[in-house]
Amino acid sequence: xxxxxxxxxxxxxxxxxxxxxxxxxxxxxxxxxxxxxxxxxxxxxxxxxxxxxxxxxxxxxxxxxxxxxxxxxxxxxxxxxxxxxxxxxxxxxxxxxxxxxxxxxxxxxxxxx
Length: 113
Prior knowledge:
mainly alpha, 2 helices, about 0% strand, rod-shaped
């Protein structure tokens, strides 16, 4: 009978060990599943943050390009205005020099003109 009780104890011990192992495996599987879910959540958050940063960067670049374009346009307008002013001043200065020349001539020449 001694050997039959030994077999029963070994069988019980094996059964307890198997249950323990199964419980440990199930717990490990739950932990892995939880970690996987957390990593997926973190990945989605990181991806959304990355997309948002990329969007902000693109918007900044577009705004910068718009400012550059507007600045170039203002420079063109200023250059055109400057050219007109210089042309008008040149005409006015020539007119003043002509008038000065006419005043320098003797009065008799001025009367003839």
